[in-house]
Design a protein that fits this description.
137 residues, alpha+beta, Lipocalin, 25% helix
Length: 137
C-alpha cells in the first residue's frame, strides 16, 4: 500500500511540475510568435466591410506591423507601444484617439488575427467592430 501511495505522489508531482513548465513555455512562445516576424496586413475590416481603402477607417494600419521585444512597434503608418496580457493586446500611439485594446483571436507562425470594438469618431455614439488579420512576412 505504501508503494502505491508513493508512486501516486510521484506521478501527481511530475504532472504538476510538467503543467507549470508547459504554461511558462506557452507564455514565452506567445510573446515570441508575436515579436519574431514582421506582420503584413491581409484584411482590415470595420463592421464587416473592407476599411483599408483610401477613405477607410483602417487605411493607416495597412502595410507592415512590427512588435518589438522592448514594447515599441510600428503599426502601418503609426509608431507606438504595445503590451500583451494573455490573449489581450493593447496598442497605443500619440496619433490614436484612445488606446486599442484587442483580443488575439489567432496567433501562430504565419497568421495574426485580432478583434476589437472602438468608438466611430465620425459617427458618435456608434462603434466600429474591427477585425484585422496579418500574415507573417
Amino acid at each position: 500500500m505504501n508503494r502505491i501511495t508513493l508512486l501516486l505522489i510521484v506521478v501527481v508531482g511530475m504532472h504538476i511540475v510538467g503543467c507549470n513548465d508547459k504554461d511558462d513555455k506557452d507564455e514565452v512562445d506567445y510573446f515570441t510568435l508575436l515579436t519574431k516576424p514582421t506582420w503584413v496586413s491581409d484584411s482590415l475590416l470595420a463592421n464587416g466591410l473592407d476599411a483599408s481603402g483610401p477613405d477607410g477607417a483602417l487605411v493607416n494600419f495597412k502595410g507592415e506591423a512590427k512588435f518589438r521585444t522592448d514594447g515599441t512597434g510600428t503599426f502601418g503608418t503609426y509608431d507606438g507601444t504595445w503590451t500583451l496580457s494573455n490573449t489581450q493586446i493593447t496598442i497605443n500611439s500619440p496619433d490614436f484617439f484612445i488606446p486599442i485594446n484587442a483580443e488575439i483571436v489567432e496567433l501562430n507562425t504565419s497568421s495574426l488575427k485580432i478583434t476589437t470594438v472602438v468608438p466611430d469618431i465620425n459617427n458618435l455614439p456608434e462603434v466600429l467592430n474591427i477585425r484585422m488579420t496579418f500574415k507573417a512576412k
